[in-house]
Amino acid sequence: MKQQGVSLSNKELLSMFEKMLLIRIFEDKIHALFAQKLIPGTTHVCQGQEAVSVGVISNLSKEDVITCTYRGHGHSLAKGIEPKKVMAEIFGKSTGCCKGKGGSMHITDLSVGALGSFAIVGAGIPVAAGAGLSFKYRHLNHAAVAFFGDGASNIGAFHEGVNFASVLKLPVVFVCENNLYGEYSPLMKTTSVPNIADRASAYGINGIVVDGNDVLEVYRVSKGAIDDARAGKGPTLIECKTYRQKGHSRTDPGKYRPDSEVREWMERDPIRLFGDYLRSNGIMDRSSEEAMSSRVNQVVEEAYQFALDSPYPSENELESNVYN
Amino acid sequence: MKQQGVSLSNKELLSMFEKMLLIRIFEDKIHALFAQKLIPGTTHVCQGQEAVSVGVISNLSKEDVITCTYRGHGHSLAKGIEPKKVMAEIFGKSTGCCKGKGGSMHITDLSVGALGSFAIVGAGIPVAAGAGLSFKYRHLNHAAVAFFGDGASNIGAFHEGVNFASVLKLPVVFVCENNLYGEYSPLMKTTSVPNIADRASAYGINGIVVDGNDVLEVYRVSKGAIDDARAGKGPTLIECKTYRQKGHSRTDPGKYRPDSEVREWMERDPIRLFGDYLRSNGIMDRSSEEAMSSRVNQVVEEAYQFALDSPYPSENELESNVYN
Amino acid sequence: MSSKVMSTININYRSAIRFALREEMKRDDRVFLLGEDIADAGGVFKVTEGLLSEFGPSRVIDTPISETAIVGAALGSALMGLTPIAEIMFSDFTAVAMDQIANQVAKYSYMSGGQAHVGVVIRAVSGGGISFSAQHSQSLEAWFAHTPGLISIMPSNPRDAKGLLKSAIRCGRPVMFFEHKALYPMEGLVPESEELIPIGKSEIRKEGEDLTLVGASSTVATCLEAASRLESNGIHSEVIDLRTLSPLDSKTILGSVEKTGRLIVVEEDVGFCGWGAEIAAQAADKSLYYLKSPVKRVSAPYAPIPFSPALEKMYMPSAEKVYAAAKLLVQGS
Amino acid sequence: MSSKVMSTININYRSAIRFALREEMKRDDRVFLLGEDIADAGGVFKVTEGLLSEFGPSRVIDTPISETAIVGAALGSALMGLTPIAEIMFSDFTAVAMDQIANQVAKYSYMSGGQAHVGVVIRAVSGGGISFSAQHSQSLEAWFAHTPGLISIMPSNPRDAKGLLKSAIRCGRPVMFFEHKALYPMEGLVPESEELIPIGKSEIRKEGEDLTLVGASSTVATCLEAASRLESNGIHSEVIDLRTLSPLDSKTILGSVEKTGRLIVVEEDVGFCGWGAEIAAQAADKSLYYLKSPVKRVSAPYAPIPFSPALEKMYMPSAEKVYAAAKLLVQGS
Ligand SMILES: Cc1ncc(C[n+]2csc(CCOP(=O)(O)OP(=O)(O)O)c2C)c(N)n1
Ligand SMILES: Cc1ncc(C[n+]2csc(CCOP(=O)(O)OP(=O)(O)O)c2C)c(N)n1
Ligand SMILES: [Mg+2]
Ligand SMILES: [Mg+2]
User: What is the pTM of this model?
Assistant: First the structure.
């Protein structure tokens, strides 16, 4: 890991690390709570993929926007939704970012530019293109980022959304998190190309493969693409090679994955890699790390308490918000 | 034009020419009848694109199948639907191949492997993949061919259908007839790549550009792809560069096209090119050409008379065939 | 319709829609159009003709043949505060964008706890009668009416088309605006001054005491024609133009049913599980004790739309069918 | 259900469906399965577990996440004489394949003048009650019932699930087979010997004279629970299990309504323009003079399905709601 072509201050680097830690600890908590049957419905956690959301979103301001998927807690936290609002939403409480009406698969907070978690595979992609269209329309140099999985690159909405953004030269970056699996199916079984980024050429745009567990690489590459988008050069497709450390959803243990594969990827844990980098470059020491860790733990515990203490939505919520 | 790597007997060559002539004269008749308001609904004629349907389909047997689009009279005739059944269908008569229930946009005859004209852009593509799947399933070395337009390559069904066939290695050939326009829009305005064949790489398959007005080239290239399909090597995407000599539909005069463009392409009329080749190589002389031409004219006139003389479907057809 | 004097112009349904688009685009520069062949070509039905030269290519956008992207992009731009008007060339093609329409656009507001006004207007060209076969002639309004979060509007005449489209553009909610292709040439008087026709209000086109005919879009004319023939037979029917299918103006409809005691719903759509069933069901619930005779529906049979003009004619609802049904209801034979 | 002695086994709804698939695949080697994660993983709901090892990868096919391709390929293979059974993991995802389902599969036979038996079975997992939010919990049966050319089946118990799925696979017509996710663990007796339950026939689950309750899929149990509570209050209700939504068994339903004079339709679906409206409308047409009180529908309110368990509970139909509505109908308060 190195800081090639990237100039981030120590403060910024530490803040990125803290974001990744927040996502990890948040997701670990969700995973445990779900296993204890304290969380209703389903959840899709993202441990192991923190470098993607944090690496990309660290390039964005509040005016820039993202769309993500049912596996969207990480992006939502990285984009700045308050952890307690995410947690309360996952519990279906009225204090959640969607008043408990959306849940884990639909985390949304327009006030920070998190346009939504889309639970239909691929559905967020054209929506991000539309947000990009609005920036171009208004001559704003903001960018829209669509996050989605490797499996999503097989669905029509991906094709149409990327092509649309390319034809209209919209300020959109398409970030594919290739975590090697779509649900229980290994990517290679259901996809006709080795790299999702290879599909970029079908739309006349750049496709870039990046190590998705190296947050600095993700930052660097996505910075280039986002800058291009802002500069009116149109979209880019970035493929981040990463790994879903847990199963697909709920309590799936992910037994269909070879042990060796899991082991190898655990060794390349993005937080471990980035932590090593920060420590070995003297940017983070044990005590600052511990302080950070306990701060983050506290944030997550507080979010949990907040969710627990919050009321469920009342009956008048049932038929409200159908239109707005 | 030359017969490179292609070994067709004179009889076969003449039969291909006759097919092209049949399509041309048939479509000219339809165009004229429509202008006279004798044909209900809408029609999409294919003059100028005859080399594609005839070039490709000359490689197919009756057991092989095709899907095509609303611009499907040519493919339907090339695949062997009787002209009078096509004509009667276009008139909405009970003797039509679909008993008058489908019309010009839905010409279908399963008995000759014409699985249908699909009026929703792209919809026939996955259906052809499914036919290919059935051949693989039954260990038959037949092939399925999907014909579609350049504009269709922008829709989700194209992406999903081609990817699906590639992942499952199905015996399907995807033939894009790039006639430079989707309705009234020039291709380059709505599509992000200069060659539709460039999209093949997004599916890990071969993409080939061919002169779609050179029937021998179309024959040769599609023969390779069809042979590959039969041999279990999976799908190919062939892009035939061609031109729609008439407007998009009905009486559209196509005024949005530059005169020079129209002129250039009229000079490269596929029937003229092939006729020149046959004459200059001594395969066809004036008298045999005239005989052929009058034969074809008679077939089309008879088809027209047949359609005129046929009855409309009776009331009991209204609610029959909902299931079969 | 109020009869106070106003200055009007005679224009067709197509122009009325174009006028609404133009006025709203002039009024509010967040309003823009996207769709296939709507800019250079002015639309397959020429509805948007001239708007490109007036508003330029950033506000009248030709798109690839990608209905999913069109609707998805409309949603994304609406979330950022714009008011996109997407054209779906034939409403049958809503099927290729159904996820974006029914799962994304329709549900966004609710799932997000009311965070956004989703001001997406989808203009979709519907209806049969011109031999365009089963994939270019459907009336699919019931699918959308059945999807909470979508407003469905079905104008029957130029004035309504204009006034309702303007309201749709301003309402900040997802709207399916169904334009009937056979009505495009229909002429009618439209006020010269701005008129906003309220969403969710039906209109009584003709008063009567003997029975209630409910139509929408193309079938309003069918009802009126039947009504005038019934009138010569001494049967006085009330004709209601739905205007908005969802939200439904149950009050006006049931009020009329309670007055007349008889109801026939006339829809171009397939009857089975269509919107006529909803109206009949509401009558059977709320107005049962007023009903003097069975509630009838004149709708398309359970079959796709046939191409052949001979069959299509039998397929469509007609004044004759309505007349026959009404006579039977009122006179018992 | 006939009470003649037969040898039965107790299995759940999920296994019953698996048994039907296995038996039909054994019987006819043209029958095959395709869908996402159905082979190696045995399906998200484990319905197809074990079938890969029994029938091999050519007959149990894992596909890309491409519902349009899945349904389109099913159609293509059916035209060539195979019998594909496509799994749509959540019926909400039918929206991304709506064109193939509603415009291609449903209309192929008609548009081609009856050239093919389109033997496509689409298994789709429907329904709410487990906090899967608005895009994984819907009951969209009315969309398909409204689309001529599709059979829609909604089994309420293991025996029906097995016997109806077997009939669906053999019928050579396009079938939407809705499996309710909350019913998968439901146990019940299923005959050991082969049973084909006819498509298009409802079943009277309980007889009664005071009112008719019509349910389908999950709401049959709701109706039965309400019925037993009503029974303790001296109200004898008849409970009809729809089994097949389209074609609808109007004869059985209206026969019951004409006997009891009262009707409540109980659907999990949104009420507005739902299938309950169709049944109510048929009653208001054909059985009007038998009706003693308003026709009621207990259905979902006009809103997407909320995530929060607290709200979802209010959203769903329940025995309590049915009970309350029935008491009001019969006793007037
Ligand atoms: C249209 C659609 N089809 C199927 C699903 C069910 N599904 C949910 S997640 C998933 C796998 C997606 O894989 P990928 O895109 O790689 O994302 P990941 O879960 O790995 O982040 C599937 C098939 C869905 N939500 N939407
Ligand atoms: C999904 C869908 N969207 C739009 C249309 C309307 N439409 C019919 S033909 C056409 C243009 C298609 O262009 P192309 O694929 O190049 O085929 P060509 O007509 O040139 O043969 C369009 C947009 C349609 N039939 N289906
Ligand atoms: Mg993945
Ligand atoms: Mg074209």
Answer: 0.98
